[in-house]
Amino acid sequence: MLADVELAKSYRLLNHGPTVLVSSAAGGRRNVMAAAWAMPLDFDPPKVLVVVDKSTYTRELIEASGEFVLNIPCRAQAAQVVQVGSESGHGQDKFASSGLKPMPGLKVGAPRVAGCIAYLECRVVQEQHNQQQYDLFIGEVVAAQADSEVYSDGRWHFADDAKRSLHYIAGGAFFATGEAFSV
To answer: How does residue 12 score in pLDDT terms, banded at 50, 70 and 90?
Structure first.
């Protein structure tokens, strides 16, 4: 069951550095790609950063629509994350080829990826220099939700190993979030 996340605390969905799926749509077209370089940027209004290379179909759709979704996948989706991160969306529907299921966004036209443990729907904050020079997109978070089984009271708690977030190392290798502890 998804629960709304207070926008001022939506940064906590990314603060632990998970791999994300970036989904986008424009003109009846859609795409999804994996990204390891995403992070929170600001609190009020909440903003995030994500790097999306110029050569990607996702980038083309983000530039056309001005919107994207950062979907936080879980360990159960690792094979699909690798697949959509390894293939181009030019000439194919990566949702269909990977078996990932799109679902409508709450506030943006870009689809969400079903089965993810959290979602940050974003509208692009236009920063042409950063976008062109560094492939860096700033998104203002306009909706945020998380799976209440693994995120509640402003904190992640991973009891189910299949629902642990993924963290990309390199060369197709990941690790999943480990046991939480407090100091």
So the answer is: confident
Q: pTM of the entire structure?
A: 0.91
Question: Is the pLDDT score of 169 beyond 90?
Answer: no
Note every long-range contact of 171-174, with CB atoms under 8 Å and residues 24 or more positions apart, other chains counting: 172/82, 174/19, 174/78, 174/81
Distances (CA, A) of 91 to 43, 64, 67, 113: 38, 17, 21, 20
Q: Hey, CA dihedral for 75, 77, 78, 84, is it positive or negative?
A: negative
DSSP three-state, residue 183: coil
φ/ψ region of 135 (left if φ > 0, alpha if ψ in -120 to 50, else beta) reads left
The residue assigned the tokens 């693994």 is 150
Calpha distance 121→46 (Å, rounded):
11
Percent of the chain surpassing pLDDT 90: 77
Check: CB of residue 53 under 8 Å from CB of residue 137. Answer: no
Does the bond joining 45 to the residue before it have cis omega, within 30 degrees of 0?
yes
